[in-house]
Amino acid sequence: MRNPTRARRADARAGMCQRLAESEYPSGDGVGGEDRVRDLEAGSAAAGDRRAAAERGTRAMTVHIIEDDPGVGDSLAMLLGQIGHCARVYPDAESFFEAPPPSSSDTVIVDLGLPGLSGVQLIRWINGLKKPPKVIAITGQSNRNIMEMLGDEQPAVLLRKPLTEELLVSHL
Q1: Which terminus of the chain has fewer CB atoms gathered within 10 Å of its CB, N or C?
Q2: 112: alpha, beta or left, given left = phi > 0 and alpha = psi -120 to 50?
């Protein structure tokens, strides 16, 4: 008997692979088909917040946060919303794949220690896009564990938890 959760995840991965094979991806404004994805755009990307971002010299963008710890994901989303960005939080890579793919002007924050499909695999797939978004990898792991997880796959930006606002904003 086929496990419906596994089947759904396999279908999501197959759909992402299909999208990866295509040449250009539109930036969607949906949040996927599941209630597990938290779209924290309401209020955070209003015109006033976008103006505030412009005044600080930052560009308002959509930031996709793939983080299995709800407290960390929500905290990052609140911080990003306060500085004028739209944040979408996903509890795992599979949920991220169910949503429309990010545009090249977006930023994706990926926890390396995701359950299921690993953060390293997710980063590898994102970097395979024809026009990939900026990727920031985050982790609370030790240096030894980080090296074991990453191997030869070194993300452009790797930040250690706990994150500070200044550190994160400097890499957006």
Answers
A1: N
A2: alpha
Which one, of 162, 138, 133, lies nearest residue 150 by Cα?
A: 138
End-to-end CA distance of the chain: 45
Q: Are 112 and 141 in contact (CB under 8 A)?
A: yes
Instruction: Answer yes or no: are the C-beta atoms of 100 and 106 closer than 8 Å.
Output: no
- State which of 15-24, 55-64, 71-80, 154-163 shows the largest mean pLDDT: 71-80
Residue with tokens 């429309």: 100
Instruction: Answer with the residue of higher pLDDT: 149 or 108.
Output: 108
CB contact at 8 A, 72 and 112: no
CA distances in angstroms from 88 to 101, 142, 143, 152, listed in the order given: 12, 27, 28, 29
